[in-house]
Amino acid sequence: MMTQVQKASFWRILSAFALMLVLLAISGTLRAHGGERHELHKAESVVNPRSDYWRQVREGVQGYTAVKGQETNVLIQGGGQNWRRLRNGPIASYGGVLLGVVVCALGAFYLWRGQVKLSQPRSGETLVRWTLAERVLHWYTALLFVFLAITGLSLLYGRALLIPLVGHKAFSVYAEIAKLLHNFIGPLFIVGLLLMFVAWVRDNLPSRIDIDWLRAFGGMVGDRHPSAGRMNAGEKMWFWILTGGGLAVSASGLLLDFPNFGQERWLLQLSHLIHVVFALVLMAGALGHIYIGTIGTEGALEGMVRGRVDKSWAIQHHDLWCEQLAADESGSSVPDRPPLPETSRIAS
To answer: Which residues lie across from 347 on neighbouring strands?
Structure first.
């Protein structure tokens, strides 16, 4: 077990790393913008006798070509420059800031709150929380998500972060491999995402209990833990964020993976921006999900690793689910009921 001093040192290092990520992302973007302005200034200082001609080309005025095919009569598509500026500018900068802020916030919250401990001693009796099939599906999708996040971040921030460390040649080789693996693994992640939706959509439908859970901040703040069914409101929110954001990332990713089905360049550029934005949002949400499911809550990870949880943990965090299990064993039913009064909730 880590001591308090070791924990504090660990989170200081992690926070410093997150801050470095934000600063490097911003500095890389500023350098890119500075280079663009310098090149633009040099170009404007030279009078081009054919400037009117090229201005029309960049504005998308179509010419004539003997080659037949989609967009073959467009010499230069000016939208590509706008796409590059958005990707390397505000999206990359704000995305790095978002991830850095989330990491720092989680670190600060852990130092302030610490791990949510069990309020009662372990009972020694365990309940089946996740079946083997559910655990395999979860880890399959989670590991693919982590791999896609690493390769995606490498492609987005690699020029600013990796080239100064490994050089242009090494980064070129790595980026090519990362891009190919990212493109091939993406469809496999979609399969896991769809199977997760089918497997758990019923457990993640909203209920009246969720309002009370949100008002109590899920028991992460304060001395009492709110009631919850098999999935609490936080898990339900992450489920629907992952479903909605995952569909956006998946649909845009498929358009980029298979660009030979009639997609024009403007659609590919828009798809890429949507892909990056929603991917960054999902990464930020995943950091919170990982924190709560590991070091943030005592006993939470046991369920997804072993499939079973201690009954004391289940009663504290998912008391209504425990009641339902008991009712199923006895053959009775538990009616849907409004949120429990404050005095009857289980203390954490």
So the answer is: 224
Please state, in angstroms and rounded to a whole number, the distance separating the CA atoms of residues 260 and 254: 11
Token pair 């995606």: residue: 152
Task: State yes or no: pLDDT of 246 exceeds 80.
Answer: yes
| Long-range contacts of residues 96-99, Cβ cutoff 8 Å, at least 24 apart | 96/21, 96/22, 96/24, 96/25, 96/26, 96/157, 97/22, 97/25, 97/26, 98/280, 98/281, 98/284, 99/18, 99/21, 99/22, 99/280, 99/283, 99/284, 99/287
| pLDDT tens figures, 68-96 | 667 766 667 777 888 999 999 999 999 99
For residue 308, what are the β-bridge partners? 128
Cα–Cα distance between 231 and 129 in angstroms, integer? 11
For residue range 292-304, list pLDDT tens digits in order: 999 999 999 999 9
Fold that domain 119-348 belongs to in CATH: Fumarate Reductase Cytochrome B subunit (1.20.950)
Cα-based distances in Å from 108 to 94, 177, 335: 21, 36, 40
**Residue 110: which of 283, 295, 287, 294 has the closest Cα?**
295
**Domain range annotation of the chain:** 1-114, 119-348
pTM flag (> 0.90): no
Nearest 5°: phi and psi at 347?
A: -70, 145
Give one word for 292, left, alpha or beta, with left for phi > 0 and alpha for psi -120 to 50.
Answer: alpha
* Contacts of 22 by beta carbon, 8 Å cutoff, 6+ apart: 96, 97, 99, 100, 101
